Amino acid sequence: MSHALATGLSAALPFFGPAKARTGRPAPSLNRSVAVLIACVALVGLQALLAAPLVPDIAQGLGASIADIGQALGAYGAMAALSALFLGPLADRLKRGQALVAGMVGLIGGLALCATSVNWIVFAGGQALMGAAAGVVLPTAYASAGDLAPVERRSAILGRVLLGWSVALILGVPLAGLLGQVIGWRGVFAGLAVPVLLAMPVAFALPDPRTERGGATSVISRLGTAVRVAGVAPMLCVGFLNMTAFYGTYAYLGTAVRAALNGGSALGAVPVLAYGVGFTITALLSGFIDRLGARRVLPVACCALIGIFLTLPMVVGVLPALIVVMMGFGFTQHLILNCFIGLLSIRGGAQRGVVLSLNTASTYIGLMIGTASMGRVLDTWGYAPVTAVSAGLMLIAGGIALWDQRQG
Q1: For 346-365, how does the pLDDT look when each residue is reduced to its tens digit (9 = 90+)?
Q2: Helix and strand tally (H, E) in the chain?
Q3: Which of 33, 100, 125, 173 is exposed most, by the fewest CB atoms within 10 A?
């Protein structure tokens, strides 16, 4: 059954093109594995991002404020960070498929808790459980891509795996906004548990080419060793700053759009769809990062994102212009993700799983800080200060990326 599902996933995604082995011949098993990893990332992306177009509805349904829901979303980030730090390295001792399934069980529990929550605190508990699961699934999926990909094509293969976020953004999140008006936000959370359940047997069968797994050394020791690997710390900093800026801006974009255009959750999903299109375009072209070099691309992409953040408040009430800017946002954000995750994967070497767990931790600390703090900024001063702070964070990230480039 799992083999058939994996084959079906691969066949359903033919536009990715055949993954090539070192000999240049197609590698069907690699295609199937990449398709499974795309599905895993897409499911995490869905449950991480689907609340964005539904924030006002969730707040109204639970008798809470926008800032309260921001705190609940921040709980997701906090637990994802802790999970990546302490469960991620432990999961590295398991087969990749076993770790993915363990995380998916947590996703289902968190979705059920959110769907049945009676107040925003219970909703925050569901978000926290989903975050703990994401802290296992994401680094495992990214590390699997590094395990399976030929070295000379790592950015291209990682770009395909990151397409899971595109699937979430293009198909899932806009659909969540539409369904939110039909079956309510609770139905959206409950419904997502079904594809997670279906993905579990496919994920369990994922190949694991490693000959060695995490040893018996303590988690703290393994984390300390990983963070001292040359070139890892700068990319972790870039990732943290980028994710804080991204989530602080993105989490409340739907709210800002709905307020400016006086629309419902379906309208809030439109810019998300545009972002996903831009994100996908970059993914399909990500092989050029292997040719140019991620260290050269990263500072330029950081600078481009600064301009996008500063432009967003000016177009948030003009839908055609917003769609264009959001496509650029998705294109640029994918470049940044591919570059710093790819560099971490390469530099991590034998410590790849632990290094990418550290990346997931820094990512979700950024999510926690970005969503929890920017909700109050939005309530008090509006959306323009939110994006201005994000631009400032990316200015620092670009400086670190430029410094790292010059070290090579």
Answers
A1: 887 777 778 888 888 888 78
A2: 20, 0
A3: 125
